[in-house]
C-alpha cells in the first residue's frame, strides 16, 4: 500500500459528507497500536464537536476503491484540546496497517464528522450520579478511556475499569491510567486482566468483579467474545439492559460489495405500496412524497428536509430514527442492537417503507 496512493493534500476535494483534517501528532502507544491527533480548523469546530465515546470514520483510497473504517476517539472533549483516535493493527488490515506504518504528522486524512451512541450519560440514569463500571478489551479501551476521563472531569461518579489485554506489553494508555488512578484514588479503581497471567476473562470472574456494585451503569467495548461474556453475565445477574451499553465495530464492505447490496435492496422495494410518508423532525410533522426504491434518507433529502446523516452506508448511526407507525425494510445494519430494533429504531439511509402508511420520528 503506497503512501502516494493514500495521502491527501490540502487542495484535494474530499467525497461529499467528509472533510480534510491534518494529522497534528502521531503517538506510538504500543508495538501494534498508535494514536493520531487531528487538527480541526476553526470553521469546523462545531461540526467536529463530539461526545465522550463517539468515533470518527475515515475514507481511504486503496486500489481504486474508497475504504471506510471507524476508529473511536480516546480523547475527551472535556480534557483534550484536539481529538485523538487510536488504531491497533489488524491481521491483513489494509487501513489499520497503513495507519500504523505510513501516516505521519502533517499528513491529511479524509474524515467524517463524529458519530455513535456509546456515550456517557446518554441514558440519564439516576440523574447521571450512578457508579460506572467500564469493561475494555484490547483496543476497545479507546471509547471507554474517553468516557472515563470525561466522567472524572465532569461528574463525581465512582468508576471501576476492568481492562483485559494479551499481556503487559499490549496495555494501551498504561502510563496515563496509572497517573489517573494515582490522582483519583478514592474515585477510580483500575483492574488489569492479562491473558498471559489469568487467561481469558470468564463469567465467574465478571460476577466477582461486579459484586457490590448494584445500580451501576456498564460500558463494554472489546473483542466479540469478551463483550459477549461480560454482557451475558450481566444479563444473567439481572442487570437491566438499559444499564448496559455495548460498542461493536464491523468493518464496512468494500464499495463494490456495498453497491451490489444497495442495488438488491432497491430492486426489492420497487413494488412498494407506500402511499403516505410522514416524518417528524424537530417537533414538526412533514408529509412528503415517496418514490419507490428510495431510502427514507433519500426521500427526506428530496423533500428538502435537513435530517441528520453522515456515512450513508449503515455503520455510523447518525441517521437513526424511530418507526412510529407502519413497517420498514432495513437493508444493512452494523450499528443497531437487537433491543434497539425491537424498540422500533431504524437507519434512514438503509431503510425503505414496506407498508402503505409510514411515520418515522428523528430524535430531538
Automatic annotation (TrEMBL):
Cofactor: [2Fe-2S] cluster; FAD
Domain FAD-binding FR-type: 16-121
Pfam families reported for this sequence: FAD_binding_6 (PF00970), Fer2 (PF00111), NAD_binding_1 (PF00175)
Sequence ranges assigned to domain 2Fe-2S ferredoxin-type in this UniProt record: 275-364
Keyword terms, alphabetized: 2Fe-2S, FAD, Flavoprotein, Iron, Iron-sulfur, Metal-binding, Oxidoreductase
The protein, known as: Ferredoxin--NADP reductase
Taxonomic placement: Bacteria, Pseudomonadati, Pseudomonadota, Gammaproteobacteria, Pseudomonadales
